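Structure ticket #2291
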Amino acid sequence: MSNRTESNVYTVVFAIIMVLVVGALLAYASSALSPKIDENKRLEKQQNILYAMGVNNNGDSGVEFVSTKEAPELFSKYITKQLIINNGQTSEDDKAYLLDIKKDKAEAGGDASKRHLPVFIGEKDGKTLYVVPIYGKGLWDAIWGYVSMDENMVVQGVYFDHKGETPGLGANIKERFFMDDFAGEHLLDSSGNFKGITVSKGNADPKNLDKTDNEVDAIAGATITGNGVTAMIKSDLALYVPYFKNLKNN
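Resolution: structure written out below.
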């Protein structure tokens, strides 16, 4: 009996020690790697913003970002100003691209006046572009992206990504054949009212020749993810309409 009790105590003590040791090692690893993780996130955001405004290494088909080595220099070259819009007030902030959109959206709790809305103003090929981030929900988890527009809210380029959409279906929102369709699409209707862009299964323009119908063709088998893209475009980009109206009036 005594040996059995001592054996059980030894096992419990050993397990506790191992948990503490492993926990300490994981905490140390997390702390040590944190700067590298933050740097990778920073570079990824720069690459995504640049991609949306057409600064990328795309060839005939696949998505090709500028390299992480090139990203900081190109970001400084093409992005001329960064703004934060909050409750109708606009201020410059050269770290606006680091804003956590997911966290900001959650903290606002549906109150648009509490949102902090970044705008990245860039110059490319003699044209001024306005890139903004969007965030939403797909079939399984978060989806997000960046939309590049001109002063008339005509889309010049996009980049979409996701956390866990189905490979070959919803995950295709980050593929060229889907993203390229958005270039040239109007976010306003013919009367100048915001309408957004609908990812539509019943789109009567599968070749996407009509850029004023506020629609792009859906991905087969990815209805819910497509609806998520539609929703985040309409909900998040609508918040920028006052900024663009003011832009045209000045």
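Closing remark: The chain has six helices and eight strands.
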